[in-house]
Amino acid sequence: METLSHHNILVMLLSLGVLLAAARILGELAQLIKQPAVVGELLAGILLGPTILGTLSPELSLFLFPPTGPNAIALDAIATLAIILFLMVAGIEVDLSSIWRQGPKGLKIGIMSILIPFSCGLAAALILPDVLGRPETSPLLVFSLFIATALSISALPVIAKTLMDMDLYRSDLGMVVISAAILNDLIGWIIFAIILALMGNPGVTADSVVFTIGMTLAFTVLILTFGRHLIHKSLPFVQAYTRWPGGELSFAVVLAILGAALSELIGIHAIFGAFLVGAALGDSSHLKERTRFTIDHFVSFIFAPIFFASIGLKVNFMEHFDFKMVALVFILACFCKIAGGVIGARWALMSRKEAWATGFAMNSRGAMEIILGVMALEAGIISHSLFVALVVMALGTSMISGPMIRIILRYQQHLSVADMLTSKYFLHRLQASNPKEAICEMVELPCRTTGLDKNLIEAAVWERELSLSTGIGKGLALPHARIEGLKHAIIVVGISKDGIDFDAPDDKLAHVIFLILTPLSDADAQLAIASEISGIFRNESMLEKALKIKNFTDFMALLRTAPRGWPF
Amino acid sequence: METLSHHNILVMLLSLGVLLAAARILGELAQLIKQPAVVGELLAGILLGPTILGTLSPELSLFLFPPTGPNAIALDAIATLAIILFLMVAGIEVDLSSIWRQGPKGLKIGIMSILIPFSCGLAAALILPDVLGRPETSPLLVFSLFIATALSISALPVIAKTLMDMDLYRSDLGMVVISAAILNDLIGWIIFAIILALMGNPGVTADSVVFTIGMTLAFTVLILTFGRHLIHKSLPFVQAYTRWPGGELSFAVVLAILGAALSELIGIHAIFGAFLVGAALGDSSHLKERTRFTIDHFVSFIFAPIFFASIGLKVNFMEHFDFKMVALVFILACFCKIAGGVIGARWALMSRKEAWATGFAMNSRGAMEIILGVMALEAGIISHSLFVALVVMALGTSMISGPMIRIILRYQQHLSVADMLTSKYFLHRLQASNPKEAICEMVELPCRTTGLDKNLIEAAVWERELSLSTGIGKGLALPHARIEGLKHAIIVVGISKDGIDFDAPDDKLAHVIFLILTPLSDADAQLAIASEISGIFRNESMLEKALKIKNFTDFMALLRTAPRGWPF
């Protein structure tokens, strides 16, 4: 068998390691500034690809990412496997039944937010094919259908993540938006599958178009009905008669790979098959959370970053950056998608505010658009410049989506407790021996840096403490007060080795003390923070671990990795 | 960039899907008959490779697994990534500190079980290089060193699994064996790394040998001291300042890949670097169980099966099966490794019985031997026939290890509750309305099929029930008795929709009733079974779920996937 040489193996490992490390680091940084991880992951590829590294040091770039030969094939093989597993995870996230549960509302929004962008896109591509840089190899009809689809598709994972971050995922608004997005994706991918099949078939005739549409629809229906039923019936059997959790894990991955192969075999792109199998799997109530998490984590944090970073290696984003085209695509995409969402939402009798939030939510294109772009680029449907414009549009729409919804709904971001902590407000060795001293010692820290009036705050916290003591048991105390003029919540953490008597119901001394100061204007913040903290410390071993930490970083690590009622 | 064509993608997905499916199914079957999964996984490759499928249908074999071209490269790239991740997991399992904890005992066994096989192997290869089929390209010294190493290495994962299956892993004997095996592996891999480096360097001189040995030792020491320290210090930082659990997961995988690249760069094989990084990672008390599990499961159930099955594609096992060589290698391997283990154990003043058990435990070569063989085959050190002999030896030694230890220690296999259940002894709709009727109804099932005396058993169970009722609360009852003449434990399950009053301490009616009959001779079986059952049903939701099941398969799925105090 032909194998990789030692040099090939070395290059493959170096390129994979560097790519994954860069993608994850930039992905984390993107999330720090409240942006989707995919923004950072793509940027990593642009930095390591022809755009930046290839310009600064062509030799290093050629060494790490040779454009031809075994290493190019090896990286493409791993990226292909990665995207198939990623689409499987995207499919698992789809909740088919919620489309029906949301009824006509989701349907109306889903339809309008496809119909309007699709018509606009079709019209624009038919009228201005040259401005959009249609390659000569790409038939006008196929090209126009692609532009129409590219404008219509949504990014379910990004939308879901944005809504989750704002605690809107399980709200009525959230479920309507999600069900509309699922409909969007499903129809978008079916159209795209048809386009790809048409593109692979040079002698396109009316018959072949009908045949492809028929095959795609038949495949979709088959997997989502018969396949789904079969999977649902098989899962208990797999769980009962194989080693847990390995059996179910392999079962799911094998199905996704074979589903991808099957769809490739009948002429639809592999990723569509993986997506459908994922949807069928995720729909089964028998699929265990544990399996979902293992697949989701390994794919989201290993495979997906490799795939998205590898995109940056394909194209020189600087060279192919055509400002006019980028602007045109971006404006057209935003305008017609937001319009579609708003009109659909108003048709579904939602309030004006909610309608605009819906429009901006549906507007984010994220990873899905980029995947679509890669496939179209490789199939020769679009030019490099249009590909760059699509990527910029995908990132831009994803980045504005969250902030715009926050503005429209006047949403006050609730940070997690770990996000609110800082080493400045951390007292590893609290000196105090009683509550009054502890409060005094802890209040001093924020007052020193922010210029708040120490006496005023101390009095407020102490007054609250006297009215009802804040020792909640299990070694925790949460003294707190609402402070006028405070802009955002402040948490000070103090750790007392000897313990302080905060008059807890279980009579235990408090060792970990969270002083919580919240703005007077934000009535809910205090309760949200307190309930998150007591949730984290529900596990008895947490207190013990907290007393063993050596510094602020250890404390943060403890909070972030605390078990939070995982379902297994 | 050079990419895979549609045809390539189709073939890649089909081959991966088929390979993984076959490997997992045969791996599960192997485990059913108490054999290591790797036996089945290898067999899957032999079935799909040139040995069987290639002979039966050369066209299909060529289509699925083309020996040259992009698909051969793609599969090799994925298999290479797989083996690197597998060695990382093997490294994580190594507990470096236990070598020190076990002190001289483990050291003595470790030394003897390397020294004796190594000398025997060296002597045999130097005396009989032609019987062992030395290829002309392989220098005699390198070849002999390889044979010596191949006979000396153990298979830590297989040994660990065998001991765990027998509840011996945490015993004194278990820890001594494990620490000896770790020492074995560490030294074995270092020697092998040196061999590979010598092989890659055609003009071998005394200087270059010294240089290679120096580099390998320096690399090992560097990673296990400085690298280990750095990883331990970095983990809390990663946990504190990245999204959990993605940050730690990526950190571990990136380190393993870069460690592999580094070792490849300095001329040692990549897998050695991954193994060392794994050992350094696993040694840190900061590495979370959750991360270990996610990596372990994805690698053990997806990557490892692909790798081991892909081995079968490389060689025609029938054509290269040389009986004399297979027999020689097998006998030599067993004889000198068992001798080494026994002598070392006796030197460490262990009893004769324990010494023999140690010898057979150390004798299992499993996956590690096969990996060593693949590397040597690809480096041209050994012939195809010797490779086949090594694989047979690796599988054979792993397969006899468990049964032999059981015989030597007269170990009574404790099956898990799920392993003891059968659909024949399952009453989905118990008719009884009181304990006496329930016992009568349930006792009938085993008596009907085994010919046991119904009245006798019923009386024994009822007598036990009268002396102290067996309703243990939470809707469970565990009526039981020890029965003379019974060969192995029998469990009958009955589910009562209405509930039966087994006089539980929480006054709840029993809905799930396990009738447990154990042999009179086995004093511990009853307690072990009862405590496993109550552990499974500790979670309140289990009873609710048990009442919803539709058949025996559902019930088995419920038991197997029940949360059992996972640490997260």
Automatic annotation (TrEMBL), chains A, B:
The chain crosses the membrane at residues 6-26, 38-57, 77-97, 109-128, 140-160, 172-197, 209-231, 251-281, 293-313, 325-350, 370-396. Keywords: Ion transport, Membrane, Transmembrane, Transmembrane helix, Transport. It is a multi-pass membrane protein. Pfam families: Na_H_Exchanger, PTS_EIIA_2. This is Kef-type K+ transport system membrane component KefB. The lineage of its organism: Bacteria, Pseudomonadati, Thermodesulfobacteriota, Desulfobacteria, Desulfobacterales. Its main location: membrane. InterPro entries: Cation/H_exchanger_TM, CPA2_transporter, Na+/solute_symporter_sf, PTrfase/Anion_transptr, PTS_EIIA_type-2_dom. The keyword Transmembrane applies. Residues 419-562 form the PTS EIIA type-2 domain. It comes from the Bacteria. It is found in: Membrane. One of its GO terms (biological process) is proton transmembrane transport. Gene3D superfamilies: 1.20.1530.20, Mannitol-specific EII, Chain A. GO terms for cellular component: membrane. GO terms for molecular function: antiporter activity.
